[in-house]
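#struct-pred
JK: can someone run the complex with beta-D-glucopyranose? inputs below
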Amino acid sequence: MKRKHSLVLVPLLGLSMALTACGSDDSGDSGDSGSGSDSGSEATGKIGVILPDTESSVRWESADRPALEAAFDEAGVEYDIQNAEGDAERMTQIADTMIGNGVTVLAIVNLDSESGAAIQEKAGSQGVATIDYDRLTLGGSAEYYVSFDNTVVGELQGQGLADCLGDKKANIVFLNGSPTDNNATLFAEGAHSVLDEISNYTVVGEQAVPDWDNEEAATIFQQLYTAADGKVDGVLAANDGLGGAAISILEGNGQAGKVPVTGQDATVEGLQNVLAGTQCMTVYKSATQEAQALADAAIALVNGEDAETTGVTEDTEGGREVPSILLEPQAITKDNVGDVIEDGGQKAEDVCTGEFADLCAEAGIS
Ligand code: BGC
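RT: done, C-alpha coordinates with the ligand placed:
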Protein backbone atom coordinates (compact mmCIF):
# COMPACT_ATOMS: atom_id res chain seq x y z
CA MET A 1 0.00 0.00 0.00
CA LYS A 2 1.37 3.36 -0.91
CA ARG A 3 0.86 6.06 1.60
CA LYS A 4 2.07 9.51 1.05
CA HIS A 5 1.46 12.45 3.22
CA SER A 6 1.62 15.98 2.22
CA LEU A 7 4.22 17.78 4.26
CA VAL A 8 5.23 21.27 4.78
CA LEU A 9 8.95 21.21 5.22
CA VAL A 10 11.02 23.81 6.91
CA PRO A 11 13.78 25.42 4.92
CA LEU A 12 17.02 23.52 4.96
CA LEU A 13 18.86 25.63 7.44
CA GLY A 14 15.83 26.91 9.26
CA LEU A 15 15.29 23.91 11.41
CA SER A 16 15.28 25.94 14.57
CA MET A 17 12.02 27.44 13.41
CA ALA A 18 10.36 24.10 13.49
CA LEU A 19 7.79 22.73 14.50
CA THR A 20 5.11 21.14 16.46
CA ALA A 21 6.60 17.77 17.26
CA CYS A 22 5.28 14.94 15.25
CA GLY A 23 5.50 11.29 15.93
CA SER A 24 6.68 8.38 13.97
CA ASP A 25 7.31 4.82 14.89
CA ASP A 26 9.58 2.00 13.99
CA SER A 27 7.01 -0.29 12.51
CA GLY A 28 6.83 1.37 9.17
CA ASP A 29 3.12 1.80 9.08
CA SER A 30 2.40 5.02 10.78
CA GLY A 31 4.34 8.16 11.42
CA ASP A 32 2.56 11.43 11.32
CA SER A 33 3.28 14.14 8.92
CA GLY A 34 4.68 17.36 10.25
CA SER A 35 2.85 20.61 10.40
CA GLY A 36 5.10 23.22 9.12
CA SER A 37 6.40 26.68 9.48
CA ASP A 38 4.81 29.29 7.25
CA SER A 39 8.00 29.92 5.35
CA GLY A 40 8.49 26.31 4.30
CA SER A 41 7.92 24.98 0.84
CA GLU A 42 5.40 22.26 0.15
CA ALA A 43 6.77 18.81 -0.42
CA THR A 44 5.51 15.30 -0.28
CA GLY A 45 7.87 12.79 1.14
CA LYS A 46 8.85 10.15 3.57
CA ILE A 47 12.37 9.17 4.51
CA GLY A 48 13.40 5.57 5.10
CA VAL A 49 16.60 4.71 6.94
CA ILE A 50 18.03 1.21 7.27
CA LEU A 51 20.66 0.75 9.96
CA PRO A 52 23.05 -2.18 9.59
CA ASP A 53 22.97 -4.22 12.78
CA THR A 54 22.99 -4.13 16.57
CA GLU A 55 26.24 -6.02 17.14
CA SER A 56 29.11 -4.37 15.27
CA SER A 57 28.75 -1.26 17.41
CA VAL A 58 26.20 -0.15 19.96
CA ARG A 59 26.16 3.22 18.19
CA TRP A 60 23.46 2.33 15.64
CA GLU A 61 20.66 1.81 18.12
CA SER A 62 21.93 3.81 21.09
CA ALA A 63 23.18 6.93 19.29
CA ASP A 64 22.11 7.04 15.62
CA ARG A 65 18.49 6.01 15.98
CA PRO A 66 17.57 8.58 18.65
CA ALA A 67 19.56 11.29 16.85
CA LEU A 68 17.83 10.52 13.56
CA GLU A 69 14.42 10.50 15.21
CA ALA A 70 15.15 13.87 16.80
CA ALA A 71 16.38 15.38 13.51
CA PHE A 72 13.41 14.12 11.50
CA ASP A 73 10.92 15.10 14.20
CA GLU A 74 12.35 18.58 14.32
CA ALA A 75 12.12 18.87 10.55
CA GLY A 76 8.55 17.63 10.65
CA VAL A 77 9.19 14.97 8.07
CA GLU A 78 7.67 11.51 8.06
CA TYR A 79 10.18 8.70 8.48
CA ASP A 80 10.69 5.03 9.06
CA ILE A 81 13.88 3.69 10.67
CA GLN A 82 14.59 -0.03 10.59
CA ASN A 83 17.55 -2.23 11.43
CA ALA A 84 18.73 -5.05 9.13
CA GLU A 85 20.19 -7.03 12.07
CA GLY A 86 23.37 -7.82 10.15
CA ASP A 87 21.51 -9.61 7.37
CA ALA A 88 21.91 -8.23 3.83
CA GLU A 89 18.88 -10.14 2.58
CA ARG A 90 16.84 -8.64 5.33
CA MET A 91 18.07 -5.18 4.38
CA THR A 92 16.93 -5.85 0.81
CA GLN A 93 13.49 -6.93 2.03
CA ILE A 94 13.15 -3.90 4.29
CA ALA A 95 14.13 -1.67 1.37
CA ASP A 96 11.49 -3.32 -0.84
CA THR A 97 8.85 -2.79 1.84
CA MET A 98 9.86 0.81 2.38
CA ILE A 99 9.73 1.50 -1.35
CA GLY A 100 6.32 -0.20 -1.47
CA ASN A 101 5.19 2.00 1.41
CA GLY A 102 6.06 5.09 -0.55
CA VAL A 103 9.36 6.40 0.80
CA THR A 104 10.74 9.11 -1.44
CA VAL A 105 14.26 8.98 -0.03
CA LEU A 106 16.00 5.85 1.20
CA ALA A 107 19.18 6.05 3.29
CA ILE A 108 21.15 2.90 4.02
CA VAL A 109 24.20 1.92 6.02
CA ASN A 110 25.21 -0.91 3.72
CA LEU A 111 26.32 -4.29 5.01
CA ASP A 112 28.44 -4.73 1.89
CA SER A 113 28.74 -2.71 -1.26
CA GLU A 114 27.24 -5.32 -3.55
CA SER A 115 23.93 -5.66 -1.72
CA GLY A 116 23.88 -1.91 -1.06
CA ALA A 117 24.36 -1.12 -4.76
CA ALA A 118 21.55 -3.53 -5.71
CA ILE A 119 19.20 -1.86 -3.23
CA GLN A 120 20.07 1.56 -4.61
CA GLU A 121 19.64 0.48 -8.20
CA LYS A 122 16.19 -0.91 -7.49
CA ALA A 123 15.21 2.19 -5.53
CA GLY A 124 16.40 4.41 -8.38
CA SER A 125 14.38 2.44 -10.90
CA GLN A 126 11.28 3.15 -8.81
CA GLY A 127 12.00 6.86 -8.56
CA VAL A 128 13.32 6.69 -4.99
CA ALA A 129 16.42 8.78 -4.27
CA THR A 130 19.12 7.17 -2.11
CA ILE A 131 21.73 8.34 0.37
CA ASP A 132 24.72 6.48 1.77
CA TYR A 133 24.65 7.00 5.51
CA ASP A 134 28.05 6.60 7.17
CA ARG A 135 29.37 3.93 4.74
CA LEU A 136 30.01 4.58 1.06
CA THR A 137 28.49 1.98 -1.25
CA LEU A 138 31.16 1.23 -3.84
CA GLY A 139 29.59 0.88 -7.26
CA GLY A 140 26.39 2.35 -5.84
CA SER A 141 24.21 5.15 -7.10
CA ALA A 142 23.45 7.21 -4.00
CA GLU A 143 22.75 10.89 -4.61
CA TYR A 144 24.69 11.82 -1.48
CA TYR A 145 27.16 10.34 0.97
CA VAL A 146 26.82 11.56 4.57
CA SER A 147 29.61 10.55 6.94
CA PHE A 148 32.68 11.64 8.81
CA ASP A 149 36.06 11.97 7.18
CA ASN A 150 36.98 8.37 7.74
CA THR A 151 40.60 8.67 6.67
CA VAL A 152 40.97 11.31 9.37
CA VAL A 153 39.36 8.89 11.85
CA GLY A 154 42.19 6.45 11.06
CA GLU A 155 44.80 9.18 11.32
CA LEU A 156 43.50 10.18 14.75
CA GLN A 157 43.69 6.55 15.84
CA GLY A 158 47.24 6.21 14.52
CA GLN A 159 48.33 9.47 16.13
CA GLY A 160 46.56 8.55 19.37
CA LEU A 161 48.41 5.26 19.55
CA ALA A 162 51.72 6.98 18.75
CA ASP A 163 51.07 9.51 21.52
CA CYS A 164 50.46 6.71 24.00
CA LEU A 165 53.48 4.70 22.88
CA GLY A 166 55.97 7.52 22.55
CA ASP A 167 59.29 7.06 20.78
CA LYS A 168 60.21 3.64 22.13
CA LYS A 169 60.58 0.61 19.91
CA ALA A 170 57.15 -0.97 19.69
CA ASN A 171 55.43 -3.95 18.12
CA ILE A 172 51.97 -3.09 16.90
CA VAL A 173 48.99 -5.27 16.05
CA PHE A 174 46.21 -3.97 13.79
CA LEU A 175 42.68 -5.22 14.41
CA ASN A 176 40.82 -3.79 11.44
CA GLY A 177 37.09 -3.53 10.79
CA SER A 178 35.05 -5.63 8.41
CA PRO A 179 36.56 -6.22 4.97
CA THR A 180 33.12 -5.50 3.49
CA ASP A 181 33.00 -2.00 5.02
CA ASN A 182 34.68 0.70 2.94
CA ASN A 183 35.11 2.73 6.12
CA ALA A 184 37.30 -0.03 7.58
CA THR A 185 39.61 0.31 4.58
CA LEU A 186 39.82 4.07 5.13
CA PHE A 187 40.41 3.72 8.89
CA ALA A 188 43.30 1.31 8.27
CA GLU A 189 44.78 3.52 5.54
CA GLY A 190 44.61 6.57 7.78
CA ALA A 191 46.21 4.78 10.71
CA HIS A 192 48.95 3.27 8.56
CA SER A 193 49.74 6.67 7.07
CA VAL A 194 50.75 7.82 10.55
CA LEU A 195 52.24 4.69 12.13
CA ASP A 196 54.22 3.47 9.11
CA GLU A 197 56.17 6.72 9.19
CA ILE A 198 57.54 5.98 12.66
CA SER A 199 60.58 3.81 12.14
CA ASN A 200 60.63 2.49 15.69
CA TYR A 201 57.32 0.74 15.18
CA THR A 202 56.92 -2.69 13.64
CA VAL A 203 53.59 -4.15 12.60
CA VAL A 204 53.72 -7.71 13.95
CA GLY A 205 50.17 -8.70 13.06
CA GLU A 206 47.22 -7.33 11.16
CA GLN A 207 43.84 -8.81 10.43
CA ALA A 208 40.38 -7.65 9.43
CA VAL A 209 37.50 -8.78 11.62
CA PRO A 210 34.56 -10.11 9.56
CA ASP A 211 31.38 -8.10 10.22
CA TRP A 212 33.19 -6.27 13.02
CA ASP A 213 32.23 -9.29 15.16
CA ASN A 214 33.50 -8.57 18.68
CA GLU A 215 33.71 -12.21 19.74
CA GLU A 216 35.63 -13.19 16.66
CA ALA A 217 37.86 -10.18 17.29
CA ALA A 218 38.90 -11.68 20.63
CA THR A 219 39.78 -14.98 18.96
CA ILE A 220 41.68 -13.24 16.18
CA PHE A 221 43.55 -11.02 18.61
CA GLN A 222 44.46 -14.02 20.78
CA GLN A 223 45.92 -15.72 17.71
CA LEU A 224 47.90 -12.65 16.67
CA TYR A 225 49.10 -12.19 20.24
CA THR A 226 50.26 -15.79 20.47
CA ALA A 227 51.89 -15.64 17.04
CA ALA A 228 53.83 -12.58 18.23
CA ASP A 229 54.89 -14.48 21.34
CA GLY A 230 53.07 -11.96 23.47
CA LYS A 231 55.48 -9.27 22.32
CA VAL A 232 52.80 -6.72 21.52
CA ASP A 233 53.26 -3.14 22.69
CA GLY A 234 50.31 -1.41 21.06
CA VAL A 235 46.99 -2.31 19.43
CA LEU A 236 45.35 -0.31 16.67
CA ALA A 237 41.76 -1.47 17.12
CA ALA A 238 39.31 0.09 14.66
CA ASN A 239 36.43 0.65 17.07
CA ASP A 240 35.57 0.40 20.75
CA GLY A 241 34.06 -3.08 20.36
CA LEU A 242 37.23 -4.47 18.78
CA GLY A 243 39.30 -2.55 21.34
CA GLY A 244 37.28 -4.12 24.15
CA ALA A 245 37.95 -7.57 22.66
CA ALA A 246 41.69 -6.90 22.60
CA ILE A 247 41.60 -5.54 26.16
CA SER A 248 39.88 -8.71 27.39
CA ILE A 249 42.72 -10.83 25.98
CA LEU A 250 45.36 -8.45 27.34
CA GLU A 251 43.65 -8.68 30.74
CA GLY A 252 43.99 -12.47 30.67
CA ASN A 253 47.70 -11.95 30.09
CA GLY A 254 48.19 -9.34 32.79
CA GLN A 255 48.83 -6.67 30.14
CA ALA A 256 45.67 -4.55 30.23
CA GLY A 257 46.59 -0.94 30.90
CA LYS A 258 50.20 -1.60 29.94
CA VAL A 259 49.55 -2.03 26.23
CA PRO A 260 47.73 0.95 24.69
CA VAL A 261 44.67 0.11 22.62
CA THR A 262 42.70 2.46 20.36
CA GLY A 263 38.99 2.57 19.58
CA GLN A 264 36.21 4.54 17.97
CA ASP A 265 32.60 5.59 18.64
CA ALA A 266 33.02 6.95 22.17
CA THR A 267 30.69 4.25 23.48
CA VAL A 268 29.96 4.01 27.19
CA GLU A 269 32.32 1.05 27.48
CA GLY A 270 34.98 2.75 25.38
CA LEU A 271 34.89 5.90 27.50
CA GLN A 272 35.00 3.82 30.68
CA ASN A 273 38.05 1.97 29.34
CA VAL A 274 39.69 5.29 28.50
CA LEU A 275 39.02 6.56 32.02
CA ALA A 276 40.33 3.31 33.50
CA GLY A 277 43.49 3.52 31.36
CA THR A 278 42.98 0.20 29.58
CA GLN A 279 42.18 2.05 26.36
CA CYS A 280 44.43 4.82 25.13
CA MET A 281 41.86 6.74 23.11
CA THR A 282 38.61 6.63 21.21
CA VAL A 283 37.19 8.73 18.38
CA TYR A 284 34.02 10.71 18.91
CA LYS A 285 31.72 11.18 15.94
CA SER A 286 28.66 13.15 16.95
CA ALA A 287 25.54 11.21 16.00
CA THR A 288 23.56 14.43 16.34
CA GLN A 289 25.67 16.08 13.64
CA GLU A 290 25.59 13.08 11.34
CA ALA A 291 21.84 12.61 11.73
CA GLN A 292 21.25 16.30 11.10
CA ALA A 293 23.37 16.16 7.95
CA LEU A 294 21.34 13.18 6.76
CA ALA A 295 18.06 14.91 7.52
CA ASP A 296 19.21 18.05 5.66
CA ALA A 297 20.30 16.07 2.59
CA ALA A 298 17.15 13.95 2.58
CA ILE A 299 14.87 16.97 2.90
CA ALA A 300 16.72 18.68 0.07
CA LEU A 301 16.06 15.64 -2.10
CA VAL A 302 12.41 15.55 -1.07
CA ASN A 303 12.15 19.20 -2.10
CA GLY A 304 13.99 18.68 -5.36
CA GLU A 305 16.79 20.93 -4.18
CA ASP A 306 20.55 20.46 -3.95
CA ALA A 307 21.95 19.68 -0.51
CA GLU A 308 24.87 21.66 0.81
CA THR A 309 27.94 19.46 0.44
CA THR A 310 31.48 19.64 1.77
CA GLY A 311 33.02 18.02 -1.32
CA VAL A 312 33.00 14.79 -3.26
CA THR A 313 34.17 11.28 -2.45
CA GLU A 314 35.64 9.07 -5.10
CA ASP A 315 33.83 5.78 -5.60
CA THR A 316 36.78 3.79 -6.84
CA GLU A 317 34.64 0.91 -8.04
CA GLY A 318 31.92 2.89 -9.76
CA GLY A 319 34.36 5.45 -11.11
CA ARG A 320 32.23 8.39 -10.01
CA GLU A 321 32.48 11.26 -7.60
CA VAL A 322 29.77 11.14 -4.98
CA PRO A 323 28.61 14.49 -3.59
CA SER A 324 29.42 14.26 0.10
CA ILE A 325 28.83 15.82 3.46
CA LEU A 326 31.82 14.77 5.56
CA LEU A 327 32.03 15.82 9.20
CA GLU A 328 35.00 16.18 11.49
CA PRO A 329 35.80 13.45 14.01
CA GLN A 330 37.39 14.22 17.39
CA ALA A 331 40.08 12.27 19.26
CA ILE A 332 39.17 11.52 22.88
CA THR A 333 41.70 10.69 25.58
CA LYS A 334 41.46 10.67 29.37
CA ASP A 335 41.88 14.45 29.26
CA ASN A 336 38.77 15.25 27.28
CA VAL A 337 36.24 12.49 27.94
CA GLY A 338 34.15 15.31 29.39
CA ASP A 339 33.81 16.83 25.89
CA VAL A 340 31.71 13.89 24.75
CA ILE A 341 29.42 14.29 27.72
CA GLU A 342 29.14 18.05 27.31
CA ASP A 343 28.28 17.56 23.65
CA GLY A 344 25.50 15.13 24.59
CA GLY A 345 27.31 12.15 23.00
CA GLN A 346 26.89 10.17 26.23
CA LYS A 347 25.34 10.83 29.61
CA ALA A 348 27.52 11.13 32.72
CA GLU A 349 25.07 8.89 34.59
CA ASP A 350 25.73 6.10 32.08
CA VAL A 351 29.52 6.45 32.03
CA CYS A 352 30.12 7.22 35.69
CA THR A 353 28.54 4.11 37.20
CA GLY A 354 30.03 2.00 40.03
CA GLU A 355 33.81 1.87 39.95
CA PHE A 356 33.87 4.63 37.30
CA ALA A 357 32.32 7.24 39.61
CA ASP A 358 35.70 8.08 41.17
CA LEU A 359 37.45 8.13 37.80
CA CYS A 360 34.80 10.51 36.49
CA ALA A 361 35.25 12.77 39.50
CA GLU A 362 39.03 12.78 38.92
CA ALA A 363 38.41 13.71 35.29
CA GLY A 364 36.08 16.50 36.36
CA ILE A 365 32.97 14.84 34.96
CA SER A 366 29.78 15.11 36.90
C1 BGC B 1 31.32 2.98 11.42
C2 BGC B 1 31.84 2.87 12.84
C3 BGC B 1 31.34 1.58 13.48
C4 BGC B 1 31.59 0.39 12.57
C5 BGC B 1 30.92 -0.87 13.09
C6 BGC B 1 31.71 1.75 10.65
O1 BGC B 1 31.28 1.81 9.33
O2 BGC B 1 31.82 4.15 10.81
O3 BGC B 1 31.42 3.99 13.59
O4 BGC B 1 31.97 1.36 14.70
O5 BGC B 1 31.10 0.63 11.27
O6 BGC B 1 29.55 -0.72 13.11
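RT: quick notes.
Residues 56-57, 59, 134-135, 177, 181, 183, 212, 239, 264-265 surround beta-D-glucopyranose (CB under 6 Å).
Residues 1-42 have pLDDT under 50 and may be disordered.
JK: thanks, will look after standup
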